[in-house]
Amino acid sequence: MPYSYLDEDTNEVVEGVSSVVLSSRLNPESGGLMWVEEEDSAETYKNVVSMSQMTSMLRDLDRNAAYEHGIRRGIEKFIATHHRRPIAMLAARHGAEHVYACEMFQTMADIAGAVIDANGLCDKVTVFSLRSTQLTVPEHLPVRADMMVSELFDSLLLGEGLLPTLAHARAHLLTPDAVVIPQHATVFAKLVASDTLYRMNSFDQTHIDSLALARSKDAWKCTGGARVALPLHINTIPDVVDLTEVVP
């Protein structure tokens, strides 16, 4: 946030930039959202991290094991093909010469640095608090990388901008024959019935507190916002009935 003020002692204008942490709160007067400055930024960041999906990802043992298996196989494949040790984006423990990791959220980048230090890998891993699309060669990476490991996957597979990020990496950060992990993905789905899911974007009532509700013919076209899919764990919904088998 830019600021300026007049120094009364020198009669000069002092200018600079300061950073503040803002959070959205419900305005009790207007009913809308308002921005409030958080006095304890460290505590705010800690709460954001603890409540984010990042922590559940770190505790997902199956997911992490699958990534480690893919990294190990990818490095073995690269060594067998190129007869040398790769410069990887991840997996220093499995033979990479150096790892360049990106985490745009500064607090998570700091945590990553502390974990790397605790595991004695500071000489093999460099963490940038940047988007991967902000990295350049040779400013950040001394040479193009031989391998890229991407975690830009969500419940919709491509919802976090994987394709443009990968395109940028291939154009600016990777060698032409670089190994990309994961190399492919399959989405599995099934049809289910659930009153709970039904009520997330519809309702059966025609009156609320004696107030009549009218629905137009276009009501079912309303998805409740731009995000038409909600990430959730289906096993937490008690009334789900499977209508089909799981299919790719």
Automatic annotation (TrEMBL):
One of its GO terms (biological process) is methylation. GO terms for molecular function: histone methyltransferase activity; protein-arginine N-methyltransferase activity. Gene3D superfamilies: Vaccinia Virus protein VP39. The keyword rRNA processing does not apply. InterPro entries: Arg_MeTrfase (IPR025799), SAM-dependent_MTases_sf (IPR029063). It comes from the Eukaryota. PROSITE patterns: SAM_MT_PRMT. The keyword Methyltransferase applies. Keywords: Methyltransferase, S-adenosyl-L-methionine, Transferase. This is Uncharacterized protein. It comes from Aphanomyces astaci.
